[in-house]
Amino acid sequence: xxxxxxxxxxxxxxxxxxxxxxxxxxxxxxxxxxxxxxxxxxxxxxxxxxxxxxxxxxxxxxxxxxxxxxxxxxxxxxxxxxxxxxxxxxxxxxxxxxxxxxxxxxxxxxxxxxxxxxxxxxxxxxxxxxxxxxxxxxxxxxxxxxxxxxxxxxxxxxxxxxxxxxxxxxxxxxxxxxxxxxxxxxxxxxxxxxxxxxxxxxxxxxxxxxxxxxxxxxxxxxxxxxxxxxxxxxxxxxxxxxxxxxxxxxxxxxxxxxxxxxxxxxxxxxxxxxxxxxxxxxxxxxxxxxxxxxxxxxxxxxxxxxxxxxxxxxxxxxxxxxxxxxxxxxxxxxxxxxxxxxxxxxxxxxxxxxxxxxxxxxxxxxxxxxxxxxxxxxxxxxxxxxxxxxxxxxxxxxxxxxxxxxxxxxxxxxxxxxxxxxxxxxxxxxxxxxxxxxxxxxxxxxxxxxxxxxxxxxxxxxxxxxxxxxxxxxxxxxxxxxxxxxxxxxxxxxxxxxxxxxxxxxxxxxxxxxxxxxxxxxxxxxxxxxxxxxxxxxx
Length: 539
Hints:
The chain is of the alpha/beta class. It folds into four domains: 53-186, 3-Layer(aba) Sandwich (Rossmann fold), CATH 3.40.50; 194-345, 3-Layer(aba) Sandwich (Rossmann fold), CATH 3.40.50.12780; 349-423, Luciferase, Domain 3 (Luciferase, domain 3), CATH 2.30.38; 432-538, 2-Layer Sandwich (GMP Synthetase, Chain A, domain 3), CATH 3.30.300.30. It is 28% helix and 26% strand. It has a five-stranded parallel sheet with strand order 4-3-5-6-7, sandwiched between helices. Strands 12-13-14-15-16 form a five-stranded mixed sheet, with helices on one face. Strand 10, helix 7 and strand 11 (233-236) form a beta-alpha-beta unit. The longest helix has 17 residues, at 32-48. The N and C termini lie far apart (53 Å).
C-alpha cells in the first residue's frame, strides 16, 4: 500500500502512462507518463541545486499543469511545498516567505512582477533560489534554473527518504491577529482521507473531476491527489469563470465532468443566475461542497434540476485535513429553511460537541465542535503557542492520540447521531438581552426569492443593543427591492430582536481568495458607513 502522495500518483503512471492526467483551461493535456517523467527530472534538479530533506519550496504560479508537476517534484525531492496565491498581495506573501524560509521559489506564468515585489518586501536571512517552470523567457535577474534545464536530466524516479509522518505541504490560513499561520499537513493525513473518499465516492479511471479551488486552498488537495491517485482526469477550472456562472455551467457541460467540488458560494451564484438547465450535465455523478454552510434554497435548486446527481456536504477546517465529516443528502429538502447536517465523521475521524469545560453535551444541546482522529495536523509551522491553544488534550487523555482540534465552530448532535453546524463561536451574539445565532438570520434571508446573495455580520456598539446586526445583500437580477421591504418580509420569518438594523446593498458581495464571502471587508464597510441605518450602495 502506498504511503506517500507521490507514490500514489507514480503507481497510476506505471499502470496507465498514456492516460490523460491533467487538462488545462486552454485544452492542453498532460499524461500520467509525462507528469511522472517531468516531476522526476524536477526532483533531480532540485536535489542537484542543493535541496535537502525538509527544505521548504514555495510555489508561485497560476492554475497551470506546471503547478501539479511542481508539487510532485518537490515531494520527490524530500521537501515540503508551500503554495502561494499569485494574486498577492506582496506584503502578505512576503510574510509567508519569512515564516517558511524557503530554500527555493518555483514560479511560472505572469508572476514576475509579484515575485519581484514579494522578494523585495521579505526580510530573509537567505534569499531563495528561483526556478522558472514556464516555456516563456524567465524574468530578470536570471533564475538559478529554468524549464529548459530539465531536459538534461534523466526521467528515472529519484530515491527519497520521506516517511508518511513527514510534512508534505504547508497551507497558510488567516490568523486572528491578522498574520497568516502555516498549517502543516502530513502525507499520512492526506492519504488517510483519500483512501476513505475515493472508496466512498467511487472515484475511478475514466472519470473527469473538477479542480476549482486555488492551489493554496486546502480543498484543492482532494481535487489533485484524489483524482491522480485514482487514475482519473483532473480538469483545471479557469479562475476567470468564477464570476461567470453561465461559463462555469458550460465548462461542466463541455468537459463532461463526472464530479464537481467547490465552496457553496459558487453553487449559489450559479443557482441565483439560473445557469443550470433541467437535467443538465448528463455525465455528472457527484456534486460536493465544503468550506461554508450551503443555503438550503441553493441545494433545492440543484437537486430539482439534477435528479441524477448525488449531493454530499463535507465539513472540516484546514487543520484536520480536507474534511472530517460528510452527509450525502437523501432527498430534496421540502422547506427552504431546513438545516443541512454536516453528517457523521469520516473514517478515522471523530466529532465531539463539548461545553466550556470540555465536557460532552446532551443530544440537541449547543456546544463547540471538536475534532479528533487521524486527520489532525501536527500544528502550525514554528508557532508552538498557537498550536497549544488550538490543539488541546482530550479530558482524561494520556497520549498524542488524545489530541483534539478546537474548531471555534458551534454545533449540535441530534438523537440520531447527525451533527449540525450552528455558526462560529464568535457568531453567537447577545443583542438586547437575547442570544442570537447569525446563521439562523442568514438561513431566513436565503429563503427570500428577492435576493441573489446575502451575509450577516455584527458590530459592537455602545448602545443598549450590545451588538448591531448588519445585513449586506445583493438583489436578484432584475429585482428592485429596498432594505425596508426586505426587513418587512424578514419579519414574517424572524422575531423583531433578530432583524438586522443596518443594511448595505452591493452589486456583488466581496470574496476572499478562496471564494468565500469576505466578512472582515463587510464589517469594515459597515463601520465606515457615515449613516449606517440608511441603505447605501457598494460596488
